[in-house]
Amino acid sequence: MTSLRSWTGRRLALGLGQAAAVPALVFVLTEALPGDAADALAGDDPDPRRIAVLRAAMHLDRPARQRFLDWAGGLLRGDLGTSLVSGRPVTRYLADGLAPTLLLAALALALLVPLSLLLGVLAAGREGGPLDRAIGSATLAVYAVPEFALGVLLVSVVALRLGWLPPTAVGGVREQPAVLVLPVLVLVARPLCSISRLVRAGMLAALDAPHVRQARRHGLSEARIRWTHALPNALAPAAQQLARTCDWLLCGVVVVEALFVVPGLGTVLLDAVAARDVPVVQGLAVVFGLFTVVLNLAADLLARRLAPRSEAAA
Amino acid sequence: MNQLPRRQFLLGTGAAALALTTAAGCGTGSTRAPAADAASPRQGGRLRAVFAGGGNETLDPHLTNLFVDAARAKALFDKLADYGPDLAAVPRLAESWEPDATLRTWTVKLRRAAFHDGRPVTADDVLYSYRRIADPERAFRARASLEPIDLAASRALDPATVAFRLKRPYAEFPNVLAAFGAYIVPGGTEDFTAPVGSGPFRFTSFTPGRSLLLARNPDHWEGAPHLDELELLVAAEESARVSALLGGQADYAHELNPATARAHQGKGRIEVVRLRNSAMQGFVMKTDRPPFDDERVRRAFFLIADRRELVDGALSGAGEIGNDLFGKGCRYYPADLPQRTQDLEGARALLRAAGAGNLKVTLDTSPVAAGFVEAAGIFKEQAARAGVTVEVRVGNKDTYWKDVLDGGTFASYRSGAMPIESHLSQRLLSTSTTNATHWKRPDFDELYARAQSTADPAARTALYERMQRRLHDGGGFLVWGFADWIVATAPRVRGVAPDAPANTLDWARFDRLWLA
């Protein structure tokens, strides 16, 4: 137990370091983009004097290092700053964007976990059997379709041609929950394929493991062997893939949110980058960084619990 | 009243059939005759309009920058004047304007109008709004437009009369009153979280980045809107705007691609409205540096362009060809100048005479506007046929306009509708702030100044024509086309003006729309 605790401590410290490094890196990258918020705001009216006034009003005329240190100092006090463009606090942007994104991600995960387990276990039922081959080729085919294409396809067929579901979330998510169906489907499609294939591969390896063969010799029922002995061992790699998928959900969400007009973090990020609104981009980097670290930590812990011998984590 | 016939003419047979079915549907449900029902506005309902987003996400009308900002601002606020279909100023909150003999003092009479909280719109509100816009500490976009006004010397003569003192004679002063973003707000206002304006709609609620909900202002000076409610929504992706419209989640979608418009035009599910002459399309040549400091090279480039091919290729045919002058269809546009056509032999001869036989030019472009990169590619092919090598360089779209203002030699360019005088003063004088062709000619400046101190409209028209002939002969703007601005509506939406270029009074004029 002490080893687990010190291991957790080490992982946590590493994670915090990573979470701190992400905003610094993002700051450097945003600074490296051509142009700043004043240029972007001036748009097609690039009067140099106006840009100069805008730049001074946004305090962008100070050195980049000083701006970053000010921002980092604010972060330590829990202050993420205000948007350069609208003057609204960054926390408002995050609070407004977080709810729809979390809702999408949670629904996607709630669907993804049981479905990928089921598909993986079914496919592993008889290796090379017709069911395995059918699931294998279907998942491969779906995996090959990018989110954007799948989204457009679903919108034009399911929403616009058949009229079964609303095509976008324009007008609000709370008023019409059915708008979430298509975005969640698009989000789930590719991870479902990759994770179910991992579960299948893990199951096949586990079914061949000595302890499972031992259980079989003891005459345990095939279903019991499958679900209680093989599956937990098969889950370790899948759990880590799932954590990566959670990160990916935050990225995939950018495309899906744009396509379906869900006003979540992805939309906030796109707008902020286009406007060179550095404080908002930084705030998002902090949130995304923390998410990633926490999720990976949880996945590693889970993997250790599921398969302590494998030492898959660390 | 002639809305229905004009709509049929515009949209062709599909829309005509649709109009008939709609009219018949109304006829069965009401006692009025179908034709009368279609022509007379119906009161009530909520119209949901979806625009491309990413705006400033505040409701301060002086921060207006994008189309969605302008649509929000014009629903909530009024300007003293606005642009008619030919971009000439028409009175709004101003009832009339009158210059003195020197054209340096303009007396503007206000009409009887009230803000949403009941306070009357007064001369002090006007001066407060203009001084706020002109504040040198801020960077409001309309500030450059108000620059000719000496606001310190301008006064309220009485609550309904403003005397504007100008820094110099300015015959087109009414254009200033109609300038983009020059809205009148109640005196002293700095907080726009729940804005109070004088416009046709009142504020209900605002969720930045998502939706602005407005309610009909029954006391608007021009008469109450037909709609009970207006909701302005935001969707950055064009495909999402179209989907929302097709799926019944929106009734009006702004800014569609020509390909989308062609796919849905006349199919009956949505009605496509093309706002002609909304966006000038062209290339800018820097006239102060090689190779374009030689007028013969500029004229050769004029002759290289096959304008029809550019309009068909880059705009999918959704537009008209240009004649190297801004403002087709606007007041003062010299429509009788001969249309320039491709003449590759002429171009080669001019280039030879200029000693630019094997000319190589870099063309800056960017996906900042629809058709830019495509037009650059097409022009590259056309130039090759005249022996000119054009290298297309695709730049960053977020900073493109600033990058090409002073950098490079040759670049893609477009401009929304504005009066020809504004185009001249903002882009073609030595003192202009956004002179992308670096056209700095003292004699040209002098012609402009003379036009502005000329009260007689005919004499002024002649001066504008001289200036434009000069640009047509060898200026830095290669204007190959004018793009339609495409909006689409649900079939039940009526009253969309088909002849209003984007940014003019009748564009996005939701107080004139109704739901059949």
From TrEMBL, chain A:
Question: Keyword annotations for this protein?
Answer: Cell membrane, Membrane, Transmembrane, Transmembrane helix, Transport
Source organism, top-level taxon: Bacteria
The record's family statement is: Belongs to the binding-protein-dependent transport system permease family.
Which GO cellular component does the record give, naming just one? plasma membrane
Single Gene Ontology BP term? Answer: transmembrane transport
**InterPro entries membership:** MetI-like, MetI-like_sf
Query: Where in this chain does the record put each ABC transmembrane type-1 domain?
Result: 98-303
- Could you tell me where this protein is found in the cell? Cell membrane
TM annotation in the entry: 102-125, 137-164, 176-193, 248-274, 280-299
Gene3D superfamilies the record matches: MetI-like
Q: What is this protein called?
A: ABC transporter permease
Regarding the membrane, this protein is recorded as: Multi-pass membrane protein
- PROSITE patterns, from UniProt? ABC_TM1
Family annotation (Pfam families)? BPD_transp_1
TrEMBL record, chain B:
Kindly list the GO molecular function terms attached to this UniProt entry. Answer: peptide transmembrane transporter activity
Recorded hits in InterPro entries, A to Z, give: Peptide/Ni-bd (IPR030678), SBP_5 (IPR039424), SBP_5_dom (IPR000914), TAT_signal (IPR006311)
Which GO terms of type biological process are on file?
peptide transport
Q: Does the keyword Transmembrane helix apply?
A: no
> Pfam families this protein is in?
SBP_bac_5
Q: What is this protein called?
A: ABC transporter substrate-binding protein
Q: Which UniProt keywords apply?
A: Signal, Transport
> What are its GO cellular component terms?
ATP-binding cassette (ABC) transporter complex; periplasmic space
The Swiss-Prot or TrEMBL record describes its family as follows:
Belongs to the bacterial solute-binding protein 5 family.
| Stretches assigned to the Solute-binding protein family domain | 90-420
Q: Which domain of life is it from?
A: Bacteria
